Amino acid sequence: MREEQTINIRGGRILDETTDAQGRLADVHISVGVIADVVQAGSKLPKADFDLDATDCIISPGFVDLHVHLREPGREESETIETGSRAAALGGFTAVVAMPNTEPSQDSRIVVEFVRSQGVRAGLCEVVPSGCITVGRTGQVLAPYAELRDAGVMLFTDDGNGVQDPLLMRRALEYARDLDITLAQHCEVSSLTAGAVMHEGSCCSHLGLPGWPALAEELMVHRDIELVRLTGSRIHFLHLSTERSVEMVRQAKAEGLPVTAEATPHHFTLTDEALRSFDPVFKVNPPLRTPADIAALKEGLRDGTIDAIATDHAPHASHLKEQPLDQAPPGMLGLETALALSLSELDMEIQAVLAALSWNPARIAGIGDRHGRPIAVGEPANIAIFDPTSEWVVDREVVASKSKNTPYHGRRVRGQVRHTIFAGQLVVRDGVAQR
Length: 435
Description:
Blueprint: E1 7-14, E2 24-31, E3 34-40, E4 50-53, E5 58-61, E6 63-68, H1 81-90, E7 93-98, H2 109-122, E8 126-129, H3 145-150, E9 155-157, H4 166-179, E10 182-185, E11 198-199, H5 202-207, E12 211-212, H6 214-231, E13 235-237, H7 243-254, E14 259-263, H8 291-303, E15 308-309, H9 318-321, H10 338-345, H11 350-357, H12 359-365, E16 383-393, E17 412-422, E18 425-429, E19 432-433
Parallel strand pairs: 1-4, 1-5, 6-7, 7-8, 9-10, 10-13, 11-12, 13-14, 14-15
Antiparallel strand pairs: 1-2, 2-3, 5-16, 16-17, 17-18, 18-19
């Protein structure tokens, strides 16, 4: 057991779901893992183990990432739960949903409990295991949902693979409805993407590379919206990347269907033109798309069609990512740059960005009772403190992740996490992880 800490946060501006867009200046006292007092800035607070200066900073609920690959068990050469959790904490995240494409897959209680226990041991953020939709993510047999739900799993996905069989997906949604769990779909009709390395468009034609059509995503988005209409079950769409996908989700929501969606920072900041360099660091699944797709994703975030910003943090060891483009695995780092890219690239109020990074994904993940909560007396102390105007340059050599495959190396961004508090513990102080 770690010793309980007392923490004072002074001079910051609180922004949460309950404030207006301007927030309010306040000082915060944390004790025994919860927010013990919130007072007018400059008021007297009890003595504390740590005094944090939050002048010119925002005090917000900690961020929640719905889509993180921690690689453990099975691929610890690329990332471990500890190193990924450290990257998350440095990025202001107090909870991350661990994707199930581990080795072995997270399709049994024993693997789920291992992942959760490794997160508890690291103690840097809450690691929330997801479960597989199908055993081994092979798309053949449904995973044991009731067993996994009893182990605390609320979100199920075969991420990396889309469920190809529509009848199997219908059955999965029916079971999910009866168990009150959420399925998260990786939308990809695999027969349309075999051998593809980048978006199908003018750029791939010019480069002579096999293309990945937008239709491969859109067909499955359409299919699953119709299956939701049929079954009444919830679905969450992972990493939307195309203009038509966004519009279909917008229409589904207008009809009242229980559909949510996420977008990644790399899909709203980078285009397929980056692949002209033939650098595998820009290879990702789904692929980087066009300026029109980026504009649609940004508008979807602005108008609430897209509920969450999720990183799809996908670390790969250097010897894997440095293979030829057609052989290198897809994926990019994302945890330490998500806030800054969102603040730098999205024309949105900071509070709206925080909704997409914090309380919206917390609810989708089923952890809204402890993450994304207001900065108020009695609430769990899961908090991010960041300077929204501070500029910095991304450097792959100093990232906390075990891998270095960030596509943003050398890019100047705005918005920097100063402190992160998880379960009342100061896990990042002045931009430095404390564990």
